[in-house]
Amino acid sequence: MIAVDTNVVVRLLTGDDARQAARAATLFATEEIWLSKTVILETEWVLRSLYRFRGTQLSAALIALTSLSAVRVEDPAAVSVALGWASSGMDFADALHLASKGESAGFATFDEKLVKRAKGLGVGVAVLHA
After folding, report:
1. d(CA 93, CA 71)
2. Is 21:11 a contact under the CB 8 Å cutoff?
3. Measured between alpha carbons, how far is residue 83 from residues 21, 27, 70, 77 in Å?
4. Terminal Cα distance for the chain, rounded
5. Which of 124, 104, 106 is CA-nearest to residue 114?
6. Cα–Cα distance, 35 to 71 (Å, whole number)
7. Is 117 helix (H, G, I), strand (E, B) or coil?
8. pTM here?
């Protein structure tokens, strides 16, 4: 198994550099790939911020990536939940933070927008008032 950096994933998903995209595709076709949550999070940010991926295009790219047969994802349950929440309109970083809360009793934030979106999805979040 080999772990990959965000730039390898971005080349694979965007094909913006033909030579590097081909090398990334070969790597994904011939190796078992480890994707850390941090790489997935950074990939989402890069695709959204620099490549202007939006909505379903962004969700579809990340779901397709994490669904590849040779790809192993760190904390797959949390990543899957976060991708689902992001597909429903929650910010992916917020969704991943919330889905990764593990055994903790709750999740506290100052972000009232996050609280509203989480409650809309049936997820309990405590808001801390400044």
Report:
1. 21
2. yes
3. 24, 24, 19, 10
4. 45
5. 124
6. 7
7. helix
8. 0.90
